[in-house]
Write a structure and sequence with these properties.
By secondary structure, this protein is mostly beta strands. It has one helix and eight strands, in the order αββββββββ. The chain has one helix spanning 14-22; strands spanning 25-40, 48-61, 68-82, 91-107, 114-133, 149-167, 170-184, 190-203. The protein has an eight-stranded antiparallel β-barrel.
Length: 204
Amino acid sequence: MILVRRSSGWGKFLPLLLLIATLPAVAQVGLYGEFSATHINVANEPEIYGITFGGYSDKRFEHHLTFLSVGPDVRLSLQSGTSSNGGRGGRPAQSLISISGGPRVAFNIPVARLHPYVEGLFGGGDSQIGEQVSDGYPPPANSSQLNKNGGGTFESQILGGLDLKVHPHVDWRVVEGGYAQFISTGSPGLNIMTLSTGIVIRLP
């Protein structure tokens, strides 16, 4: 007698993933650069701005599921900012540095030259939110209260965006929106929302 146990969770998607992996496909690499604005869900913290560089590999299917592409995405994000609400003795400074990667799923709409996509990324880096930056005055007595978040972080992020083909090998990343959680060692976690735009170079 053969007993079959009902699968649960991600296991029920395994047959579909195996089927997709066996379909004939053509891989393509894309390199991109983005400018980003990020909102931090911490009281009195202003938006910060920065750049992101990354690359992905698309597996585009030839005969089946031609509208679908799957593959990994890896990126480096550098963001920073300062504000003047620290008063005499210094000003808070913000920075987020992260390296992350994960699966990317894109949808091809050739008629409209559009390529919407979604991603789930994981990684780590460093966050300094509300850190005191000296401006030549003695630090205030309550300066320790400005260390709202800092140190090494673990990052998880969900992203979605829309690329528009403007040249056989160039896409305009019209918009990309993301929601991320940063878990820091010895500090409260961060929830951030990011809005980006940029350029994608697709290699033949």
